[in-house]
Amino acid sequence: MVFNSPVSRRTVFRGLAGFLAGSPLLRSQQDPFRDHSRVPALREMLNAFDFEPVAYAKITRQAYDYMSWGVDGEFTMRRNREAYDWVGLVPRGLAGVAPVQTASTFLGMNLAYPIMISPTARHVLFNPDAEAATHAGATAASNTPFIVSNVATLPVEKIAAAATGPWWFQLYPQRGSDYNRQTLDKAQAAGCRAIVVTVDQQASVYERQTHDQNLTTANGPVLAPTTIGAPRQRGNPYRVPDGRLWYEWTLLDELRRVVKVPLLVKGIVTGEDARLCLEHGVDAIFLSNHGGRSLDYGPSTLEVLPEIAEAVGGRVPILFDGGIRRGSDILKALALGATAVSLGRVPLWGLAAYGAQGVQKVLEILQAELVQAMAATGRPTLASIDKTLVRTEFL
To answer: Given 36, 135, 280, 290, which residue is catalytic?
Structure first.
């Protein structure tokens, strides 16, 4: 081969470097899924929806999918949100609403607003400070209670030390008393104010192909394999985890002997189960369908809230979650029978977007929106909110 002009070693290495830099194997190219526009300042956030695109731009696609997905076709997850469109608010004029009062109590705990943060797992996927940042942000937002997940990134002692606000602990029970007793003793010793037992995710499997793809990276799965219960049998064509299929009502009786603080059951969506909770000495009902991550084609939580309220009959408080994005959503839930509400994905948007300050800001936005909604509908106190405030057209 004959060259018309000599090629220097520098030219050769420059060409080789350019070839290697352009290789997709080196992951040196920009992520085509990301929007690289300017990240807005925290002061520019006007409502909860503003936080989600910022969170999406800042975290990995795998982490975003884990936070956002629902089970199967995600019908229930969508229905959780759509149900708020089927409830209209009825305003009252000349009601004398100034100043609006939002303070209340829940299981002996003082609340500046009837709002809490639901248990969600592995906050380190969204911010390096993980649950410590969530707790700090919640405390800064009028001491909003934070329910710490059983599968949190950080140990409960470190989360508790991150802020002074109240926190609860959520448990996925395991077969046999040793694990449950040791875990609950540890949480109670660290200062948790209540125990939340989740019972609504016995056999969930996320089958959508995009989820499976996006939850795998070059370094392996984003989420570690579950350690709850016995290992699955290899070759099981149905992929049904069996670690929680043993749950029975007697479990609550066993846990009651260990729990020294109020006990709640999370995942109740029928009046029958709410009544059974009361028979087994539960201190409060946590109405939830796991954010649409448990059973698809089930009802939205807002739809079944009146049924739960009727079954409970005011004997214990009702904590409610599912699809809340606005202060007006909170007002609708309170009108249909909730004592307080809990937020799942929304605080994670704030955490992923701006850390602890993002959690604080998104909570303060919803708090302000609730006050505005109460004032606009002529309901100056939480006690003045009842079902006459809404007109429902559930589909």
So the answer is: 290
**Per-residue pLDDT band at 73 (split at 50, 70, 90):** confident
Q: What is the pLDDT of residues 270-304, one digit of tens each?
A: 999 999 999 999 999 999 999 999 889 999 999 99
Please give the structure tokens belonging to residue 373: 């909604």
To the query of whether residue 280 is one of the catalytic residues in this protein, the response is: no
Taken as a whole, the chain contains a residue count of 395
CA 63 – CA 56 distance, rounded (Å): 9
Q: What is the mean pLDDT of residues 317-331?
A: 98
Q: Is 287 helix (H, G, I), strand (E, B) or coil?
A: strand
| Per-residue pLDDT band at 173 (split at 50, 70, 90) | very high
273's CB contacts (< 8 A; 6+ apart) are none
Q: Which two tokens stand for residue 165?
A: 């606000």
> What integer is the mean pLDDT of 128-146?
98
Considering the domain delimited by 45-202+244-392, tell me its CATH architecture. Alpha-Beta Barrel (3.20)
Where exactly are the structural domains of the chain? 45-202+244-392
Q: What letter does residue 345 receive in the DSSP assignment?
A: H
Give yes or no for a contact between 116 and 341, defined as CB atoms under 8 angstroms apart: yes
Copy the structure tokens of residue 358. Answer: 């993002």
